[in-house]
Amino acid sequence: MARVLSCIQPTGDVHLGNYLGALRNWVSGQHANDVFHGIVDLHALTITDKPGVLGKNTVELAAMLFAVGLDPEVATVFVQSHVPEHSQLGWIMECTVSFGELSRMTQFKDKSAKREADFVSAGLFTYPALQAADILLYDAAEVPVGDDQRQHIEITRDIAVRFNHRFGDTFFLPKAVTPPAGARVMDLLDPTSKMSKSSETDAGCVYLLDAPSAIEKKFKRAVTDSENEVRYDREAKPGIANLLDILSAVTGTSPQQLADQYTQYGALKSDCGAAVAAMLTPIQSRYTELMNDKAELGRLLRIGAEKAGTVAQATLARAHDAIGFYPR
Ligand code: ATP
Ligand code: LTN
Description:
Blueprint: E1 3-8, H1 16-29, E2 34-39, H2 41-44, H3 53-67, E3 76-79, H4 85-94, H5 99-103, H6 106-115, H7 122-137, E4 142-144, H8 150-167, E5 175-177, H9 212-220, H10 238-251, H11 255-260, H12 265-291, H13 294-323
Parallel strand pairs: 1-2, 2-3, 4-5
Helix pairs in contact: 3-12, 4-7, 4-13, 7-8, 9-12, 10-12
The chain binds adenosine-5'-triphosphate and L-tryptophanamide.
């Protein structure tokens, strides 16, 4: 069983792209591997400055992770700030990475440029050091990430190699794995961009907590093209291909086969909306149940923090020993 670590930032509502592209794989993979799932609130703090927001987003995301099917008996679901070793090893990682290396991170360049007049925290700059701590604390063999995160896994390996070279063999080198060609869900109104919570309008983004009627409405308004032939062609017909991909991800039938079953855009849109709404209904009721039982959620997160903490404490102790801090 490989140790697998995935983390998600509590930065807003979870959408269909997050579910089909990531969370669903987490659920189906939880029995095959030894999985740790972190809700990385310290990372979200790099762009948060209002009291209470992080806590609210964290508990909502936790409820959603259990609602989609992560089993607390099997998967270790924890909140990053509940395991103080992340911050502690984070500092050590900051001292093991260079200013030059951090300056070359494309995510920092993109995010700081986007924030323009906004406050750009030093945390946004040192973010990869904290991410390296997240990964190395768990001796993770595999870290499933999209392409945008590969550079962060590379720098984690570089940091681990440098630390091991300086202080002796301490950290296990992780590997980035790209999840099985998962659905890449596109925005319903702009099917050439990925569905994203940061897109301009909510109308092209289906949230897991949207009411069935809202979901069906969003699908009815999905942008298609001016032909009227249902055919699976991502290049020429991105809107129709996206609907077929989504319906395929929900039903398990291939998009090409589905295309043969439709002659009209309208029927495809309404079936898609209905299928997604039906898939989400049980998730929504489990979510509501959990959100109405904060005591239970707290208990589940404490179990996660306990399990994660045991592993993290042992790794941090190894790092401290290797450095040779004067023991207390
Ligand atoms: P934003 O919407 O602000 O770009 P995000 O929705 O991409 O953020 P992340 O926290 O970056 O959210 O990603 C969480 C997980 O969801 C990642 O594994 C990412 O690959 C996956 N994911 C995000 N959007 C999509 C999408 N449209 N299709 C498939 N997978 C996605
Ligand atoms: N940077 C990642 C979130 C993240 C992460 C991690 C992912 C923080 N720590 C450790 C994998 C492993 C993101 O922005 N999606």
